[in-house]
Specification:
Helix content is 54%, strand content 8%. The protein has helices at residues 2-23, 26-32, 40-54, 61-72, 108-114, 147-167, 174-187, 189-197, 213-232, and strands at 82-84, 94-96, 117-120, 123-126, 207-208, 211-212.
Length: 237
């Protein structure tokens, strides 16, 4: 009887692993392809041109760079950790903590919305007819694991969400815009709007997922300052 129970558990684990790989194929890639985390200078050297090409007036290159460094250390195949869950679904008891993928750890929900956007000459454009020069092109082919796609989608999505949040909260200086973009990226659109209404300040002890928001914003501020210096010094070496 014990042998049958062990066999059933082993079979369930194998099936669960297969299901998780189907749901999130990058888990398999990340397991077989060597990881490539980068130091901040290496991240800027490799992706600096992408950050500068896709920046907007609300989402600056150094902000995109800081988010990439925090989320993945510049690794396109960065994965989330796996965790146990108390659930009645046996195929979700042991699974990735998030659907997030790529250098900016874009979740399924954000991806579904951000892939309808793009950046043209540092301005946000939306998907539309293929003959419309002001519309996005080939967005259906955008992938979260492709760094250029991930950076462009994230810049466009954060700009749209930040602009909406500021519409009801007035203007924001560079520091406020940076922190607002970081909150939207980590916590979502609604939390970003609430953050703007509170005067761009995190509530005491406020958390988003596993992160303490105040500490996360402090790290974004520090990294953004470092990346801004790299950009000013022509730091793509």
């Amino acid at each position: 009887m014990a042998a049958w129970a062990l066999l059933a558990v082993a079979l369930l684990l194998v099936v669960n692993l297969a299901v998780q790989v189907v749901r999130k194929p990058t888990e398999l890639l990340g397991a077989v392809v060597p990881t490539s985390p980068k130091a901040p200078a290496e991240t800027w050297a490799e992706y600096g041109p992408l950050f500068e090409a896709h920046a907007t007036d609300l989402v600056r290159p150094e902000v995109l760079a800081a988010l990439v460094q925090l989320e993945s250390a510049g690794d396109p195949l960065a994965r989330t950790y796996w965790r146990w869950r108390w659930t009645t679904d046996p195929l979700r008891v042991w699974a990735p903590a998030s659907s997030a993928v790529g250098i900016l750890q874009i979740t399924d929900g954000t991806y579904a919305q951000a892939r309808r956007l793009c950046i043209h000459d540092h301005r946000v454009a939306r998907d539309g007819a293929w003959w419309d020069p002001d519309a996005c092109w080939f967005n259906a082919l955008y992938l979260r694991t492709v760094p250029s796609h991930a950076v462009e989608m994230t810049a466009a999505w954060l700009h749209v969400c930040a602009a909406d949040a500021l519409a009801g909260s007035g203007t924001a200086g560079p520091a406020e815009a940076r922190r607002l973009a970081a909150v939207i990226h980590l916590c979502g659109r609604e939390r970003g709007a609430a953050f703007a209404r509170r005067g761009f300040a995190a509530a005491p002890g406020e958390r988003c997922g596993d992160h303490e928001l105040g500490a996360y914003l402090a790290r974004v501020d520090g990294l953004a300052a470092a990346f801004a210096r790299m950009g000013a010094q022509g730091g793509r070496r």
